[in-house]
Amino acid sequence: MKFDLHCHSHFSDGILSPEMLVARAKEREVDVLALTDHDTIAGLYLAQKAADECGITFINGIEFSSQWGKGGVHIVGLGIKTDSAELNSAIEAQNNARSGRAEQIAARLAKAGIAGSLEGAQALAGNAYVGRPHFAQYLVNVGAVANINAAFKKYLGTGKSADVKYQWPAMATIIGWIHAAGGVAVLAHPCKYDLTRTKMCALIKDFAAAGGDALEVVSGMQAHPVTEDLAKIAAANNLAASCGSDFHLPGQAWQELGSFPSLPETCRPVWELLGFAA
């Protein structure tokens, strides 16, 4: 069976609707799919309905933003119960934080002489929360910068005038939310953070100590030695192994649905914790 346990719809920072996402997963011969939008479960019902209609097994998921040291990390929750009061309170808190951050970014851009950025970013975001990429696209649209990279380099990047920091909840807090909703907590794409291997290992160790359940050993297309190394680190920390494309939009072959290496045979697959047999 082919599992893809990390992907995004237009309810967060993906492009496709949940229905289109599931249809693409079917085309890519994915057997078990988890939708893991950032800090929202808004697309799960639609994805579940579409999956039922086309014969894909669907798993409720979410991806929470968390804090480790001075940087942000992402924790995926798999198999969550959407009627969990604690989960829904957590989502509301995260989205309120995002809204407040967006307002602060807009205020700073206004101070820099760029008006209407909040409304413009909201229009671009549509169903999703407003994030820096939407502000960046707005800056391009109004001619303030030439391209997305320039928007970050001039206004939105680290240390720039519209760079608004936010202290996300600690990993133990996020893991607690996921467990309260009956889910499994997975540390997402550990190699995609700007960390040395030593610091990455420290992050994984802290995640396990905080009650985490699994490590994303495979995230999209990656080199075999990377996969093998992460498998060993997961085992050393008594963590199960997860895998996913981290799909956001078509045209990115390295993050295409279902297109990634298999988990090493030495791994304990996370789907065993979810009650599945491959």
Low-confidence stretches: none
- Computed over alpha carbons, the radius of gyration is 19 Å
Largest sheet: 7 strands, mixed
Elements, N to C (H/E): EHEHEEHHHHHEHEHEH
Average of pLDDT: 95
How far apart are the first and last residues' alpha carbons, in Å? 5 Å
Helix content: 40-55%
How large a portion of the residues is in β-strands, by DSSP E?
A: 5-15%
Notable features of this structure?
10 helices, DNA polymerase, domain 1, 7 strands, alpha/beta, about 40% helix, TIM Barrel, seven-stranded mixed β-sheet, about 280 residues, 2 domains
Q: Could you characterize what this model shows?
A:
Strand 1 (3-4), helix 1 (18-27) and strand 2 (32-35) form a beta-alpha-beta unit. The model has no long low-confidence stretch (mean pLDDT 95). Strands 1-2-3-4-5-6-7 form a 7-stranded mixed beta sheet. Helix 1 packs parallel to helix 2 (44-54), helix 4 crosses helix 5 and helix 5 packs across helix 6. With 278 residues, it is of the alpha/beta class. The chain is globular and about 55 Å long. It has 2 domains: 3-90 and 168-273, Metal-dependent hydrolases (TIM Barrel); 100-156, Orthogonal Bundle (DNA polymerase, domain 1). It has helices at 18-27, 44-54, 85-111, 117-125, 132-141, 148-156, 171-180, 197-209, 224-236, 270-273; strands at 3-4, 32-35, 57-68, 71-78, 184-187, 214-219, 240-244.
